[in-house]
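assembly run, all chains below
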Amino acid sequence: MQDKIFRFVLILSAVVIPIIGGGIIYSLTNDAASAFKQFGFWEFIFSDDWNYTPGNESYGALPFITGTLLTTLLALIFCIPFSLPVALFVGEYFRGRKVATILSTVTDLLAGIPSIIYGLWGFYTLRPIFMELNLSPQGSGILTASFVLAIMIVPYAASLSAEFIKMVPADLKEGAYAMGATRAEVIRRVVFPTAGSGVFSAYILAIGRALGETMTVTMLIGNTNQIPTSLTTTGNTMASIIANQFGEADGLKLSALIAIGLILFLITAIINLIGKILIRRAQHV
Amino acid sequence: MESIKDPILQIKDVSIAYGNNKRAVKNVTADVAKNTITAIMGPSGCGKSTLLRAINRMHELYKAIHVTGEILLNGENVLLMPPTEERRRIGMVFQRPNPFPTMNIYDNVLAGYILNGIKLSRAEKDEIVERNLRNVMLWDEVKDSLTKRGTFLSGGQQQRLCIARSLALQPDILLMDEPTSALDPIATKYIEDLLVQLKNEVTIMIVTHNMSQAKRISDYSMFMYLGELIEYDDSSVMFTNPKDERTRSYLTGKMG
Amino acid sequence: MVRDKNLQIRIFKNRLLYIVVCVFSALTAIPLLAILGEVLVRGWKQLSWTFLTEATPNAFEAMMAMSAGDPMPGGIANGIVGTFVMLLVAAVIAIPVGIFCGICLSEFKGNWFATVVSYITDLLQGTPSIIIGIIVYIWVVVPMKGYSGFAGSVALFIMMLPLIIRSTEETMNILPETLKEAGLALGGSYWRVMLQVMVPSAFGSIFTGILLAISRVIGETAPLMFTALGGAAISWNISRPMSAVPLMIWEFFNDPNLQSLIWGASLFLLTFVLCLNLLAKRIQKKWKV
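ok done. output:
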């Protein structure tokens, strides 16, 4: 009897999760409906108009979708030259040694820093440097935001990649060494091909994080509502436009922002799902 | 062998099947005599552990396992009892010593009472702990560290603690699934001596890989092969003059 | 024997990779040191007892102090109280629900329901925090007709839940099966064995998971912006708008009069989060299952 109650409680608490998940999709869709109805689904996605003068309201998500994709892509490009060496350092070269523990602690702490503090650091320290280097006139913009975003996702990409690099069986590597391969060749020919799908999934998950990152980007991207034309121009991402304008929005604009939220949610959900499926596959090899 | 009078446990036509109709135990029938040690031997995969675990109904933790037949404890079908009550009357000791890591030694001995929600007075608890630790010859070694966790004990001591834990519930039968396979020879010897002493209080059924162990301590022996009970006899008879060819080749090391 | 004419080049490449890996790995430490250094240097001067015990000054007080060249009055106590209260409420709900759900996932592993729940948990874990903010706005703020600390708690609860579920599930999965069997073999009932043997054995790791979940959500700003909103007075009432330390940093960032309070608040938040993080790691090492 008590066992039945216990099992019931277990299942009851597990049911909370699908309720939240389903609820998110339902509520976002429900509240985004009036924007989609007004402008049409595809028109909303492919319009670059963001005009909230009353009577002349017109909203489109394209500038923010491009802003998000652009910052994420740039962040990924900036992140790889650092996260890959860290993963090799921790997972292969100094595996299990004290220096590796220290470096993992460093990346763990990097992952722990709240995004608003990254934003402050980017704004007060990096932005003047970018201006000094003549990289961009105001210092803020796509490039600055992507750069800080890259630092933020290094820990995620690196620690998970390192896990998969550690899992490469020693006898495979020994086999290659025994034939006279150098360590660099073992890494290229044995470690990466074996750990490849896992490392790939780590980057997919890192992309998932970068897509939804809000505060840092909001503080650094410059917040303008047009499609970015170059890396140094300002812009907005889906997350940053919501952060900036949700507070004072109502009516159609609120619905448009929620519609952007829905698009962001679906994109990150798909990316994360792909990442998790790849990880589960990689772990079961 | 002459039939066992007044058996404490009767296994009647028991078959155990895994989900896909693969039968691990096939129509086993045997009576177990009170206050004896019965050894169950056989090569890996012969179903001996499966049979033992079915007696304690451990198979019910896994959905796809199905048991048919009857297992009678003092004439009562254990497969129809509430599992918690049944398991209190039939104890089990596992291959690897597994004292509960979050409980101290004292509570580990009382774990059966704690997990059954039975309230005891302090005096009763002290008495149970001391009696059972003495029973397994562990009292002198741990009486000063009863409030420490059991994990610092040696493997053999941990296993004796697990035996004490089972005995504390005063079961009718104690099932042991290769209880010494994770222990060194000295600790093994200690446990074997202990079992021989304990049989005055409890009926023991022990699954073992180790033929000489079975020979040393058991009164009766079962030999199982491919899920069937091939031979069941007095150990003295079985080890000197096995009737079945398969038993003979197993005992002489040609099989297994 | 096969002769290798490129041996020199190969050895050089091998060296090069080693050096590149070491140099670039070392470079990743720079942002950490830079951020810690900057926050410490700029925030150190602002920390004082009153900074931790007084509420935010209003714009007028701040302006007066600025023009007179006085040190900025007031502090971040309203944010500290808000963070504490919202986190407490969120944790009180999230911990039991998360642990039970984690047990459920590990016990019913392979079952279709558990698989679905497990995927949705991953999905929630990856959901951008700003979306959680929107959703709680729709679910709590709109029906309750106002921003509130409670709405903030709900947002933090949704963020913590998947983290606690995952750590519980993973720990329960690596506990040896024989532990459960031993408990049941003594005739213990299922729920007693789970709650008195399994959960205590897993407690160290679950506790680490809880600490990490707290350290993750404590620095979150985005989900609180449209839920708890923020407030200038010290308030313990969760049915009213409430402030939180990260929310205050955001306010200070946007208010030219209050910029001098940014770094003190950041130092406080950063110290708290990173200490919690290190503590969790320490415990994890010590209480490894």
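The interface with chain C takes residues 56, 58, 61, 83-89, 91-92, 94-96, 98, 100-103, 111-112, 114-117, 162, 165-166, 169 of chain B (CB under 8 Å).

The longest helix of chain B spans residues 122-135.

not gonna interpret more than that til we talk
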